[in-house]
Amino acid sequence: MFRQLEKAGLADLHFAADPSTGLRAIIAIHSTVRGPAIGGCRFIAYDSDDDAITDAIRLARGMSYKAALADLPHGGGKAVVLKPQGDFDRTALMQSFGRFVDALGGRYITAMDSGTQVSDMDAIATQTQWVSCTSQAGDPSPYTAQGVFEGICAAVRHRLGRDRLTGVSVALQGLGHVGFALARQLHDAGAQLLVCDLDKGRVEQAVQAFGARSLAPDEIYAAPADVFCPCGLGAVINDDTLAQLNCSIVAGSANNQLAEARHGELLRERGILYAPDYLINAGGLIFVAMNHAGSPAHAIADKVHGIGTELQALFQQADREGLPTSLEADKRAEAIIARASSHAEHQHSAA
Length: 351
Ligand code: NAD
Hints:
Layout: H1 2-8, E1 12-18, E2 23-29, E3 37-44, H2 49-69, E4 75-82, H3 90-103, E5 108-112, H4 118-125, H5 141-160, E6 169-173, H6 177-188, E7 192-196, H7 200-210, E8 213-214, E9 227-230, H8 239-244, E10 249-250, H9 262-269, E11 273-274, H10 277-280, H11 283-292, H12 297-305, H13 307-321, H14 325-350
Parallel strand pairs: 3-4, 3-5, 6-7, 6-9, 7-8, 9-10, 10-11
Antiparallel strand pairs: 1-2, 2-4
Helix pairs in contact: 2-14, 3-4, 5-6, 5-11, 5-13, 6-7, 11-12, 13-14
């Protein structure tokens, strides 16, 4: 496990178990050199404890990079609460997780992620102040959707030379909190939607509301579309799906879309423009962090709107350097974090 930590450059990894509530949770803190680690809490079932640990580590690193590129005063962290089998008291479980977060004394601020909801954050907030996305604070998903929309517009402009989404086809995978709100925006902007979800009810809703064409989950990769937009879970760009993709752009909200770093290069070789996940989906984090810090709504909206401009600059730089966009984003984020680390070390040795 220590090799895994070192490889990911992780600062620390915390575990908690509370048999009285069934809590089994992991908090991965990637970095705090730019400020307290921030990132959502995932509440899903895992095939093994190792899978849960790997997920937490990978996601925490992505949050550090996301905070760095969005110029937020935070490092990255992520929590995973393993979903118990059988009956359990959800409020008691989340309160127990809240005590785990509180014990870290503010090194980690938690928020919503796949499987958690606002009522969970309210339960956590009874135990700790280091939580966002409560019913008082609000849901970050619409901000994530807005940022992804801006990113898709930037990618379409860059790759297809089109200023509008009218007639642009988007194959959208996952119609959850982000995907459904994004589908509405894309539809309103004139895009043609092809959609899939494991939940047939959501697909039916999108067909009714947006005139979307429904596809089976395994048909979405090969569907001919201008944009493939992954808004379900991660690792959807892999050896298997890359061979099937029939699009010019990959741009969506899912975290950790590339199964491995090399898949970024393979996308480039296939002439597919990739909008790096942690840049295009930063809208939710921008909302969570700025709202937690008391920033006004207009400042948050402006920054989310700016995701399109940030992506445009990254696409141009990657083109100039002949690099995959994923590598260009990693380089930028790592340079920002390295600068903060050396600044912190300098201050420490001067003290
Ligand atoms: P969600 O759980 O509300 O929705 C995910 C949807 O994807 C569900 O409807 C699920 O049925 C569907 N899905 C999962 N696997 C699928 C598959 N193989 N094929 C088709 N559909 C599938 O989650 P969300 O909050 O909408 O987030 C979506 C993604 O965006 C996640 O990867 C999440 O980590 C990421 N993300 C979300 C936010 C946010 O603000 N919610 C912020 C940043 C990143």
